[in-house]
Give the backbone structure.
Amino acid sequence: MSTLSTAVPADAHTGINGTALTVLIVLFLIVTVMGFMATRWRRPANMESLDEWGLGGRSFGTWVTWFLLGGDLYTAYTFVAVPAAMFALGSVSGFFAVPYTIVLYPIIFVFMGRLWSVSHRHGYVTPADFVKGRYGSRELSLAVAITGFLAIMPYIALQLVGIQAVLEVAGVGGGSNWLAKDAPLFVAFVVLAAYTYSSGLRAPAIIAFVKDTLIYLVIIVAIIYLPSKVGGWDTIFSAAQDKMAKPNPTTGKPTGAFIPGSQQLWAYATLGLGSALALFMYPHSITASLSASSRNVIRRNAAILPAYSFILGLLALLGWVAIAAGTKPIGLDGKPNAQLVVPQLFEDMFPSWFAGVAFAAIAIGALVPAAIMSIAAANTFTRNVYKEWVRPDATPKQEAQVSKLVSLVVKGFALVFVLLLDKQNAINFQLLGGIWILQTFPAIVFGLYTRWFHRWALLAGWAVGMVYGTLAAYNVINPATGNHFGGSVANIPGIAQMGYIGLTAFAINLIIAAVLSVALNAAKVPNGVDETIKGDYFAEAGDPRVQKLDLGPRETTASP
Amino acid sequence: MDEHEVVDHDTVPPANKGLLAAAGVLLLIPIVALMWVGSYAKLEPKLWGFPFFIWYQFLWVFLCSAMTYSAYRIVLKARPHRPMTDAQRHPHRPTGPTGSGRGRHSQGATIGDATDADLHDGQPFDAEEGNR
């Protein structure tokens, strides 16, 4: 999501909100117990394989998958950042999340079923597993794995930023004492790490029920209750329109966009489309999808997941409600921080017990994606780096052990990242991560349909897309602060329009992959061995898993 | 299953192309509608105080969901699932694909399946395919 920097009048009002904090802690304790109990849920005969620990036994039905994917994709950071962007910069930076999460579903409907089927047949756990099987290319697979790993790390860190935002508004995490400041976040993360370690993907699957129920409850209550308190929707929209039209004191340009202007149509569309293409390339999205029990579970979910998009749209509007309410998001350091806008709005407007429920919704909302992301990152490392390059003879049990350890390391790294570095770094990397992960789309999605693209052409396209996207993002200067990585929109070469950098890089990636494929195919350069057959892409739950005769130890879980 | 019916699983299962195309159109409509930002980046007509820009996109949440679900029903009808279990009854089928190299495999035979042994007995695999 967008980078935020905004100036709001300083007006410090802090202090610990006892009731809200108590409610938050109680709800947190409840999900902690659930997280540890999750091991017992549909207990497998043997937890010691990636299919069980990392994919929940590939057993989740339509509704569990709905909660899990909803809990996974609509993260705490999204819930903090989207309204913050609406509040600070308006609709182009914030509301694009709505078309993004609408067009997402027709897109994944088309290819996700195929990925599920081929993964079911061949026991793939990560997208890089598929790329390896399809192209027989360890290099391309490694490129996909590393991209996924790099893109997901800052995303995990940002979940912590979401928890921090809530804690800050609730009044904890301030002060100069290091221990008092960071201890709550530290405790939350140790707990998260512990139950992810023991229960694997089952933990977030169970907690997602609580998270999503709380989120729906809080947002529906907020969207019904708050507008009447600030004078109705007319007041809200005119307050937002006024704020966005007002010139920014540093740049002299309007603060933001109430409705995209004629120069912003491309930016709005490309941000939506590019983000939609990228989202299901992230390892955590694919992990949650592959944990579904059948191909049709995924396709049915494409039709029912938009319910979350509706909620996200309402949440985005809360950013504008905050404008009308005159919310002043001030951090504990006394500096304005737009990211605090929604928690602050809740604290100002709700009775403190319900503010506590709302805080819990966001904090628990961080735990589910953080758990799934760390599992997905760990699976990626284990399958596509450790097993592929370090220990090819690793048994399923060893794979699970390595994955569990890596999930701890990944979370520890995210914690250090957030505690020690300026969180702007995490936001910048997250922006880059979105651009990067989109560059794996051709290898993964086109690979589901055709082997016409050559593996080396795909690798070259990926490399150019990565470099171009990184440089273009670096060169975006924030007009207010003068810093690099000022946003994810830049001029599209050849068209006098601003557009999402990730999508431009993707187009360049595609052109290079296509041109080189023509050349390499014409030169008859070998294009690797494909271990899949056409029927694999249409397999359903009852179809047996392929036996890999010469691969040594293999997954031991039979098809459900 | 007919003992003599051999399905080559290295083919795309048969489908009703017309229905598939219809589903494709249903999936394409929301994408085109929402990417055409110029058609809805405006204030009027308002609905209950909401600018057109806002309520129109909310409307598409429901339309898109309905179209995706319709596409799902259509696709189920257009391409019925072709079970992949028959091959294990025909371990000696004359033609049909297997992988090669590292990916060598045969269709069928779950782990622990009674017919599993067939696949480990050194029986020669069909040599019909190389790199596809």
Chain A is about 65% helix and 0% strand.
